[in-house]
Amino acid sequence: MESKPKEVEEVVETFSEDGEDHPKRGGWITFPFVTGSMLGLSIAGGGWGSNLIVFLITKFNVKSISATQITNIIFGTNNLLPIVGAFIADSFLGSFSVVVIFSFLSLLGMTMLTLIATMHSLRPSSCPPGSLTCEGPSNFQYSVLYGALALASLGLGGTSFTIATMGADQFKNPKDQGVFFNWYFMALYVANLISSTAIIYVEDNVGWGLGFGICFIANAIGILVFLLGKRFYRRVKPMGSPFMSIARVLVASIRKMKTSLATSRDSDYFYADEVFADNTVPTKSFRFLNRAALKTEKDKQFDGSYTKSWKLCTVKEVEDLKTLIKIMPLWSTGIFLSITIAISGSLVVLQALSMDRHLGPHFIIPAGSFPVFNLLATAISIFIVDRFILHKLRPLQRVGIGHVINIVGLVGSALLERGRLGVVRSHNLTNQPGTVVPMSALWLVAPMSIMGIGEAFQFPGQVALYYEQFPKPLKSTSTAMMSLLIGIGFYLSTAITHLVKQTTGWLPNNINQGRLDNVFWMSAVIGVVNFVYYLICAKFFKFQNQNV
After folding, report:
1. Nearest partner of 318 among 361, 269, 352, 356, judged by Cα
2. Residue 218: closest CA among 202, 231, 230
3. Which of 20, 221, 247, 292 is the most exposed place for a label (fewest CB within 10 A)?
4. What is the pTM of this model?
5. What is the pLDDT of residues 1-24, one digit of tens each?
6. What is the per-residue DSSP string for 32-82?
7. Where do the TM regions start and end (predicted)?
8. 524/537 Cα distance (integer angstroms)
9. Are 64 and 350 in contact (CB under 8 A)?
10. Would you give the end-to-end CA distance of the chain in angstroms?
């Protein structure tokens, strides 16, 4: 079997401090450093993010529904920023440098949040629960808070999926990459489990300053562990801006719209990169894009050669864009799925704040810790799927199962909220904000666990699928695309929440007067429609790599 050119086999730089090549770098020896740094950074991010709604309500006197909207915007930003990190990594600096830079930004954000929690001048005066005359934050206090959240979001968003890509780059075998993604996500959920229990407990029961201080320490440890593994990492050389390549293909196709493709059947008519010898003639799909690689007399240089420009692209660049276009419908199904997860996730905290959170006579579960049941179910399910189920399912089947389980969880949430409202009315608590409803908040565990199981099927499966199917220049972007759809989902969930709040009476600030059950039913309907859309997209999707 003829070997491929070295540039195709692996466009990798592996440098020691003096610049010498080390082709043996990478592999499982890097796993402890990659996952260890991710654990530290994720614990820090989860420590401030998981309890943000409670922090805004109790320490900044923000109304409950407004707090969920602010939190969803922040979470959306956290998940949109990985695209920025991936762009910089792919185009200019590489994954290693991006992780280092953004992790230090996260550390700066944690410093500011710790100061906000410890200095009374940086937040409004405290307000009793249920009071209608609370002092709101000043413009200065809001500015400091948003600045801290912006830095923390930059750090978290710029590192999370870039670390995942760098970890996958350490392996050449797709099966090893798939195993890495499974364990990476399980470690990620374990980190969130720690931050959503231990750190939130400290924030609620000891002090927010100490809680954020622990996040600062975890962030610093994450940076240190990552740097300790520097000499073992395989470095992928930045291959230039993949988005610029996409733009060039589109521009060149438009500029040659009047050029006929009728006689252009032979490879001599198209500009092919010598490194990628397999791509000499473009495929027939999306034929209008083929004009971008069509050689004309106007494209010829003075010496008779051809070069890439805004009028001429390689066949490989054209085919890479086609691959993206083909996978976009399937990718978009994750956006609607993320909308339902974002809506239910934020409302669960509001439900928990209104319910009896006692676990025994003395211990009270923090409201911000309830999403941990979702994370725990996901982590356990990922382990089970990896050990017993993964080899029996194709990626599309795995993701589809996740869609169905998510819908079941939403239906369960709607039924549970209907029961909670029944208890509210039977005890005449509708017009008593801040009063604890005599119903155990542990009832929330069941639907949250079901949705956690669904996430174990879909999110790792989608990341592995996109990493394998995306063109090589877009590998970092492929993992970040998962984060992008989650981010868009959070933004859209904020818009939907605002629309529902403005047009219905389902979401008042006192949820005992509202109809959260209808919001969950609405989310379930969105999930069903989206699942049908997913089945259609999956049916027509063709794998670029048939081994997936």
Report:
1. 269
2. 202
3. 20
4. 0.75
5. 444 444 334 434 443 443 333 556
6. HHHHHHHHHHHHHHHHHHTTHHHHHHHHS---HHHHHHHHHHHHHHHHHHH
7. 33-58, 70-89, 96-122, 142-168, 180-202, 208-229, 330-351, 363-384, 396-416, 436-457, 478-500, 520-541
8. 20
9. yes
10. 22
Backbone Cα Rg of the chain:
25
| pLDDT value of residue 268 | 58
Determine the residue type at 410.
L
* Cα 82 from Cα 380, distance rounded (Å): 26
Collapsing DSSP states into helix, strand and coil, what is residue 236? strand
Number of helical (H) and strand (E) elements in the chain, helices listed first = 16, 6
Encoded tokens for 140:
């200065």
Closest CA to 155 of 106, 207, 83: 106
Strands 437-440 and 355-356: parallel
Query: Which tokens hold the place of 162?
Result: 């870039």
Residue among 514, 546, 333, 500 at smallest CA distance from 433: 514
Task: Give yes or no for a contact between 168 and 30, defined as CB atoms under 8 angstroms apart.
Answer: no
Average pLDDT over residues 392-401: 84
- Could you report the per-residue pLDDT of 305-337, keeping only the tens digit for each? 677 777 788 888 888 888 888 888 988 898 989
Nearest alpha-carbon partner for 53 in 40, 62, 43: 62
Looking at residue 420, its pLDDT comes to 95
- Return d(Cα 375, Cα 352) in angstroms, integer: 16
Residue carrying the six token digits 């930045």: 238
For the stretch 442-495, pLDDT in tens is 999 999 999 999 988 887 778 778 877 787 777 666 766 777 888 888 889 989
The residue type found at 47 is G
- CA distances to 281, 297, 319 from 287, rounded to whole Å, are 11, 21, 10
Q: Which residues contact 321 (CB under 8 A, 6 or more apart)?
A: 245, 246, 249, 250, 289
- Chain CA centroid to CA 45, Å: 13
Tokens found for residue 454: 């669904």
Q: What span, in angstroms and rounded, lies between the C-alpha atoms of 293 and 58? A: 59
Residue 300 tokens, joined: 């010829």
Q: Which residue has the higher pLDDT, 296 or 267?
A: 296
DSSP string, 305-374: -----SS---HHHHHHHHHHHHHHHHHHHHHHHHHHHHHHHHHHHHHHHHEE-EETTTEE--GGGTHHHH
Residue 304: pLDDT band with limits 50, 70, 90: low
**Cα dihedral sign, 424-427-431-434:** negative
